[in-house]
């Protein structure tokens, strides 16, 4: 009859492990981890209060009633098995039914699923609690990920009339802004994620109990019976076998014993159910080997969750400390296998062929000669002093950077003229010159040249930098040294990264890449050069910050004027001719500031460190960090300096164009359409002269 105390390890099974079968108290030795073995009545072993169900108040049969009802048949079958002739084949259906029932009804089932669920929840906290990990797992920065598909589905659910701009443009904007604002969104949702996981944890035990009971009620162990019935069953006589709380053990070919509940999908080699201290029920696929009881007992203890029992105290001596180890190991491995697929890094180039990073074998120390020219200034004595200083800088830089493609360095009083007059060794290169801009003054450029059929690089620098090297002022010398190191790092970038990139199959650029990429093509090298030279002058951060702000202000002013003019002449090429070069300046300077920040030791402040806060007024503070992430990824993550990832930077050009109401997007036929939203009517009326 069912009652309050409900056994999940039935007493008819425990009786095979009684210390004294003639003792009316029916006691067995109970072994728990960290406790001394005790002789206790089996009425107090493997039992829980209302483990299966509460008592019925209306006469309806409960789960415990149903289990009690089948126990009579199982008890008789067990008695027959105990008395079966050793080695005699046993009805596989009977053996399978008994084994499946005894295994599935235990508390071990619940503990296994609770442990597994807890590990998964803890892993979820780790995977999704940190924004960097969460964006990787969700595929925020990937192509063709589930995250992207969900966004696409949400967009498709909106009617075209409900969208503020054309659907392809909305798609590009939402995709980019999701990346840009993900960390902020994650921070907003962090407390919700934590609350949800805590609620799941709080309800875990009751949820698993309910699921376990439903499985028992619906006889879902039938598939277990079908699988177990495929084995060949017999009994084996032993001495001193123990009974684990997981009831039955399984061995898969080439592996150790594990709880039967946790069997893998590989071919089962052996199933063992101790039905008494002197008898084992064994199901095998092919082998006929005799089981060593000492090894089996060690495995039984390790596979138990909470306890095991034995007829004699000595049978379990020294085994209780291993209780729970095998189950925990198997569960942990299973969870790790599942989660390992989730931990794969997701990058912008994930759908492109993997390309290993190529670093050419280079000399650590420069064993090459280069020319030093002083044009329009300096006498012989000054040039000699300058040459010694520059040679020292080049030699020290060459210890860490590959710069053997250095052709020479020219310091010029007339910097633009020196650029134009430089012999590049190949007419196809054209004439080197600076790009005109409304702010600051360019003072240095690394120019590609050909010397004796080999690709080289010549650095042209304004004479003011040379004067700074000779200055008594420490800050002036640091600024000039920093500029030269930055130029030398440009050579290193070409040798370490660009050369290897050119050797691989190029990625086909579409029309929008062709239009936008020139604006951001210099950003990677700008980032790298600033990062490599940051140590020489930390105060350069302020110069980079000022250049960012000046270039942004200049771009906004010039593009606004060009956009107002566009409202009249409708010449898109003229508008883009103004906008794209200025956006390019901004991206280059931002990349340099980001590289400088990453090249300094971690610190809260440095000269120019307030730039993120200053860009917040323009809505670009979060974008700044995303741009930094994408640039950093090119160099810090293995195999990421690829054409695909470099072309992916083009989206940052779009992002800055959006701030000035210029929105390019690809049409279905591959051509680029450029939307210029609004009509600027208010500004045109306010400033009619701008339309002149």
Largest sheet strand order = 5-10-9-7-8
Strand percent estimate = 5-15%
Describe the main β-sheet briefly: 5 strands, antiparallel
Number of separate strands: 17
Describe the structure.
By secondary structure, the chain is α+β, with helices and mostly antiparallel strands. Among the domains are: 111-212, no CATH class; 366-500, no CATH class; 504-692, no CATH class. It contains 24 helices and 17 strands. The strands form five sheets. Strands 5-10-9-7-8 form a five-stranded antiparallel beta sheet. Helix 6 (146-156) packs across helix 7 and helix 16 crosses helix 19. The radius of gyration is 38 Å and the shape is elongated.
Outline the fold blueprint.
Elements: E1 5-7, H1 11-14, E2 27-32, E3 38-41, E4 47-49, H2 63-82, H3 92-104, H4 107-129, H5 131-138, H6 146-156, H7 167-202, H8 204-217, H9 222-228, E5 232-237, E6 243-244, E7 249-252, E8 257-259, E9 268-276, E10 279-284, H10 293-303, E11 307-310, H11 325-340, E12 371-375, H12 380-397, E13 406-412, H13 415-421, E14 444-451, E15 454-462, H14 463-469, H15 474-502, H16 511-520, H17 523-533, H18 540-569, H19 572-599, H20 611-615, H21 621-636, H22 643-648, H23 650-658, E16 663-666, E17 672-675, H24 681-686
Helix pairs in contact: 3-9, 4-5, 4-7, 4-8, 4-11, 5-7, 6-7, 7-21, 12-15, 14-15, 15-17, 16-19, 16-23, 17-19, 17-21, 18-19, 19-21, 19-23
Protein name: DUF4238 domain-containing protein
